[in-house]
């Protein structure tokens, strides 16, 4: 296939804007490109100041939203983590409980602690059944307690809003549902997934429900809406070779931006941009179920950065900011911003080069030079009290391997009509849709800027090879409600019947399915065994996806492969899990939620038994 763009190169809309032409044309910038020649920079800074004054006048800027006492925290929210609710740092599948202490300890050790967290909840599992985005928050036992624990630890909490969720169960209108959610959870902010901004009535309704609520749009926030959006998600922002200036933060210093490039394994460029602009970063290591961990070098850079930002927040907010201030020696690729307030000066320095730089530097060097691809700092007129903040040069990607949870052995006899798969080697071709979840190992879009169709959601195949050491008999039909009721009555298993007796049992998670199969002396079939038997398997009515014995964990994310497809199909968005009945070679990777949320109206199971020679 011929692609119309290079995914490893920023798109035109992501690139920095040259500071020239009519002032109004600069409103559309993400980053103002910086001039390479130091002699051009005084005029460049003057043009930036002229634009800011002109834009504020044209848009009638008041800054009133930034004076609300409940939302002033956003201006110093330097480190925010995007966290899947069921990240195994935050949730224990073994204990069936949230583990915020473990999550917070890791953040303190590696990143210097967090100021906020985004609790990501529904995507990419939404669309499997008719549960809507609100259900994926409302149905979580103990979520209010988790938010309270995070608040007690000093963090602010964002929830996620998916405006594209239009094809699942309908309740109230989105504004009513979201306003009620933020009020009930006592959420501090809302991440606007896929939205650059919320409309004024949206802002007003949320403000009435939770005064001081902080709305954070994705990507480039229009200038006129900086007025009522205290933060923005600076995703897919490409900088100029000489580091430039973030347009939204230059317009209003109290407007917080969080730099992130979700698929990148080298975060040095966005960290340096954040450092020179006095803004924050988003730490995002589990990207919709895919491990994109931060290297020790980049984590240490965040730790250095946010620790000093918190100590110097008055300088960063109220001081005189001189971007690309003069340095004694710029030939080494070292650049600085200068911040001055009440006789105190801070220089935030970055090194775009590949060689450590040790001077000369202005003022008192705080970090012992500026390491290659790293950051440095110097001060004059004050000396902040900082803990040791060593640089770590290790930029290697911290790989994680998703390992299969071992299957249980079988002891029982298969059904008379079970489909037998002979032992021996096999090769399978698996079809799937290239969602952001990837498949078994690794990120699907390594170092890409913004995955777009046709790469995103493209139809793809993979080949799997394996060997069955013994023949396996796979049940020809799914377990029915009547059969599961018999098991529940015999064992006392907690289960609420739903559906007709002869329909496939649903609203069962992996543990429920495994317990039934063990009671029958069997186990779940693996995804490969299911596919090998697939053409001879019968499907119940209504058609439902089937659990398989394919649970994997990389220590941060658990997932399982579903086979078979279902009659249910959520319409109206490409972000939903695909529905419809599928051929045996089709597979969906499903991230596993905890606390019962894996139970679905569209997922059942069948058993399998090993057949000795």
UniProtKB/TrEMBL annotation:
Family annotation (Pfam families): FGE-sulfatase
Sulfatase-modifying factor enzyme-like domain mapped to chain residues: 465-552
GO MF term (any one): formylglycine-generating oxidase activity
InterPro entries hit by this protein: CTDL_fold, Sulfatase_Mod_Factor_Kinase, SUMF_dom, SUMF_sf
Name assigned to this protein: Sulfatase-modifying factor enzyme 1
């Amino acid at each position: 296939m011929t692609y119309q763009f290079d995914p490893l190169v920023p798109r035109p809309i992501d690139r920095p804007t040259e500071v020239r032409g009519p002032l109004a044309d600069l409103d559309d910038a993400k980053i103002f490109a910086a001039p390479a020649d130091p002699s051009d920079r005084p005029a460049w800074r003057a043009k930036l100041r002229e634009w800011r004054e002109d834009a504020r006048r044209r848009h009638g800027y008041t800054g009133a939203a930034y004076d609300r006492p409940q939302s002033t925290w956003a201006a110093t929210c330097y480190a925010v983590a995007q966290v899947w609710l069921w990240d195994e740092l935050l949730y224990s599948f073994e204990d069936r409980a949230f583990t915020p202490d473990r999550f917070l300890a890791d953040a303190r050790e590696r990143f210097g602690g967090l100021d906020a967290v985004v609790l990501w909840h529904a995507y990419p599992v939404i669309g499997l059944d008719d549960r809507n985005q609100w259900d994926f928050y409302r149905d979580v036992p103990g979520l209010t307690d988790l938010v309270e624990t995070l608040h007690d630890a000093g963090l602010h909490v964002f929830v996620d809003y998916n405006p594209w969720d239009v094809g699942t169960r309908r309740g109230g209108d989105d504004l009513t549902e979201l306003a009620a959610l933020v009020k009930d959870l006592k959420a501090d902010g809302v991440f606007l997934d896929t939205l650059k901004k919320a409309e004024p009535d949206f802002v007003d309704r949320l403000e009435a429900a939770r005064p001081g609520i902080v709305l954070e749009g994705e990507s480039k926030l229009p200038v006129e809406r900086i007025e009522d959006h205290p933060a923005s998600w600076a995703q897919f922002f490409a900088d100029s070779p000489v580091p430039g200036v973030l347009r939204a933060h230059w317009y209003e210093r109290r407007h917080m931006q969080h730099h992130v490039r979700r698929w990148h394994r080298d975060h040095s460029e966005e960290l340096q941009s954040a450092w020179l602009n006095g803004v924050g970063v988003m730490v995002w290591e589990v990207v919709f179920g895919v491990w994109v961990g931060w290297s020790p070098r980049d984590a240490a850079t965040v730790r250095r950065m946010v620790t000093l930002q918190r100590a110097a927040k008055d300088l960063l907010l109220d001081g005189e900011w001189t971007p690309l201030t003069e340095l004694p020696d710029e030939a080494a690729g070292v650049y600085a911003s200068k911040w001055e307030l009440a006789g105190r000066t801070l220089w935030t320095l970055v090194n775009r080069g590949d060689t450590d730089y040790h001077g000369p530097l202005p003022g008192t060097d705080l970090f012992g030079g500026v390491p290659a691809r790293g950051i440095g700092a110097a001060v004059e007129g004050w000396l902040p009290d900082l803990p040791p903040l060593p640089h770590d040069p290790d930029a290697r990607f911290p790989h994680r391997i998703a390992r299969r949870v071992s299957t249980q052995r079988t002891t029982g006899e298969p059904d008379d009509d079970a489909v037998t798969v002979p032992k021996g080697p096999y090769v399978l071709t698996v079809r799937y849709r290239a969602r952001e979840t990837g498949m078994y190992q690794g990120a699907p879009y390594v170092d890409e800027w913004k995955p777009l169709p046709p790469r995103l959601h493209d139809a793809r195949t993979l080949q799997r090879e394996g060997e069955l050491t013994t023949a396996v008999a796979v049940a020809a039909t799914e377990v029915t409600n009547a059969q599961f009721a018999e098991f529940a009555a015999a064992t006392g298993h907690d289960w609420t019947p739903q559906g007709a007796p002869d329909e496939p049992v649903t609203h069962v998670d992996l543990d429920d399915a495994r317990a039934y199969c063990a009671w029958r002396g069997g186990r779940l079939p693996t995804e490969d065994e299911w596919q090998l038997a697939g053409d001879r398997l019968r499907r119940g009515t209504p058609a439902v996806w089937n659990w398989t014995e394919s649970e994997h964990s990389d220590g941060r994310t658990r997932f399982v492969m579903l086979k078979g497809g279902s009659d249910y199909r959520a319409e109206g968005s490409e972000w939903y899990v695909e529905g419809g009945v599928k051929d045996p070679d089709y597979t969906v990777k499903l991230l596993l939620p905890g606390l019962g949320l894996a139970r679905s109206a569209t997922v059942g199971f069948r058993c399998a038994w090993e057949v000795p020679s």
